[in-house]
Design brief:
Elements (H helix, E strand, L loop, with lengths): L5 H28 L6 H4 L9 H25 L2 E8 L5 H9 L7 E4 L6 H4 L16 E6 L8 H4 L5 H20 L2 E9 L2 H13 L9 H8 L1 H15 L6 E5 L3 H14 L38
Parallel strand pairs: 1-3, 1-4, 2-3, 4-5
Helix pairs in contact: 3-11, 4-11
Amino acid sequence: MTTDGPESDGKTWVEAELQDSFDEELEMEIDDERLMGNLDAIKALRHKSEIDRRLYFHELFRLQAELVKLQDWIAHTGYKLVVIFEGRDAAGKGGVIKRITQRLNPRVCRVVALPAPSEREKTQWYFQRYVPHLPAAGEMVLFDRSWYNRAGVERVMDFATPEQVEEFFHDVPEFERMLVRSGVKLIKYWFSITDQEQQLRFMMRIHDPLKQWKLSPMDLQSRIRWEDYTKVKEEMLDKTNIPEAHWWIVEGDDKKRARLNCIHHLLTQVPYEDIPQEAVDLPERVFNPSYERKVLPDELYVPERY
């Protein structure tokens, strides 16, 4: 059955716009599936999600709508939120961060992923380079790795001395208590995966030209030093799990469940509520009868290859 008229055209356009929004998530999901057909050697090792695909998308979009409400409440109330994402390499931190930020305003929600410290930064107070990235009123900041680098990679790779590590463990509880006393809500997540699952995800990255950039020399060392990272993780969680900002562990072998569980939990940690929004009316376009649009030269346009 076909229909004609403005109403039909309008409906088609709205549906197309909604589909574009859904396609953003589908593109990322397809990216996860892209290589599996050609990797028979490791296909049998793959951990398949236990959650129904339809349910996953339904819940993801519902939770993302709640994240928009959270964002509006944070901006309206002047709330300050810091969320730390730590964990094993390839444990899914980046995937969760993408889903959190996917529908949010980057002026309200920022992701901080600092590179290795410069020579100058190495001489600073350890927390100094993180402080400028903390939120002002009405902002939420997601740290894709954080000051806990000192308790993890810097310790395992001997980038920090035992004295520096001990000083970190002495200072970090009080540093975080200071943040909380100043009005910052601090939430800390540790993403955990099994040895076999990390091996599989690393092999996927090795075989995928679009993801090889994710494999740094430090990532490869994390395979060699799996047990060393386990030991320092256990001590870190024990020494830095304070009442003001304790750790939450996310089981990450099932990517989809990990994303939903983490986002749902994050939403329960903040007492947000709906903020009434003023109705928006699209103003009429002003037409100037004397205005003549200039014809721009063809060389200014991007060629239409598709």
